Amino acid sequence: MTVFALRNIVNVETLQEIQDRFAEATGLAVVIADEQGIPVTVPSNFTNFCSYIRSSEEGLRRCMLSDERVGIMAAKRGKPAIHRCHSGLVDLAAPIILNDKYLGAVLCGQVLIEDQDKDRLEQIRRNTRNLLVDQELLHQYFGQIEFTGQKRVEAAAEMLYLVANYIVKMGATHLAREELDEKNQKLMEELQIRAQLEKTLQETQLRVLQSQINPHFLFNTLNTISRLAYLENAEQTQSVTYSLAKILRYSLRNIDQLVTLKEELEHVTNYLNIQQSRFRDRIQYEQTLELDVESVKIPILCIQPIIENAIVHGFEPQEGSVKLTLRAFTIGHKVVIEISDNGIGMSEENLVSIFSEKETRGGHTTGIGIKNVHKRIQHCFGPDYGITAINSEMGAGTTVQITIPL
User: Fold this and answer.
1) Please, are residues 71 and 95 in contact by the beta-carbon 8 Å criterion?
2) What tens digit of pLDDT does each residue of 304-349 get?
3) Using an 8 Å Cβ cutoff, are 110 and 50 in contact?
4) How many CA atoms lie within 13 Å of 363's alpha carbon, on the beta-carbon side?
5) Which of 13-27, 116-130, 278-292 has the lowest mean pLDDT?
6) Cα-Cα-Cα-Cα dihedral of 373, 379, 381, 386, to 10°?
7) What domains can you pick out in the chain, each with its CATH number?
8) Is 361's pLDDT higher than 50?
9) With 0-12 CB in 10 A as exposed, 13-18 as middle and 19+ as buried, what is 315?
10) Coiled-coil ranges per the record (predicted)?
11) pTM > 0.70
């Protein structure tokens, strides 16, 4: 159920204008109060008598309590109520009810009734004698209070009811507009999500179209090139072609498939064989494995993207050689795969951006990306696994740790 208050559904300046116009038209004192009797607007046309009583702390408390009571009385009846306030003056209240919730009341009055209140001064003195105010001044202000007829009071009550209903309609319109705005906002968000999904689908369809060359044709072609290289004594060409064929065959396996660490590292070796032929002796690679870790399972294509990232972003931009070190060791019931390089390192900003929602890297990478590797490992093994540490220092290199279950 929606929780709302009077001042939140109708602009206070608008309420003030309505109240001022009503006071001008009737000559009566008017104020709009919330459900607790606390004024929402600045009182209009208040008598000096009531203003003076409200100037004392106890007098204000009694007035707000009186306003609260007559407002609730009107709300229970569902129509305007006429009563005597705590000091003895006649007040009117019309309830403001929206969606069966009492939000406040329009209150007016501060008058005395002709033929009823001629001798009320003594009673009013008794009602107000313990207030910390000047009783003589209060008596003087009492003499300024207007006497009016019963019919005028009843007519004012009917008019007050119309005003309260008008405020209710404004509140209902405001709520309807808010609800419409909220639905429009949700619709816009859904349209944006749909547009993004359509864009992603189109990009995926394009990539599928681009990759629709027959794999068997490609492998057969690579094997032919490899045999030709052998016949021509081009051993390095044969080796690179053979490695490329293995990489392509491995990459076409199901991305959700689990492979052994040994298989994944063979794929890394084939990838580095091609890169070493490109950079010759500028790439050094060392690999150290503890016993029994080769058989652990890992999602396919989780290590090679890290190696590629080290070469592309840590080595290609600079001259000189790169040293890559891979260690796999156990800690308790976990296997940690640590990949280190001596490349250019990463700034703090780049480290933070790696796992951000917005992709910041592209071009040379495999398209799988570090973030994707992390998510796929967590999807397979849970939140305690994945890329659990990335340490980098500008000019000194980067170390990435992957953790998987033993």
Assistant:
1) yes
2) 889 988 887 767 656 678 889 999 999 999 999 999 998 888 888 8
3) yes
4) 6
5) 116-130
6) 30
7) 6-181 (3.30.450), 272-405 (3.30.565.10)
8) no
9) buried
10) 177-207
11) no
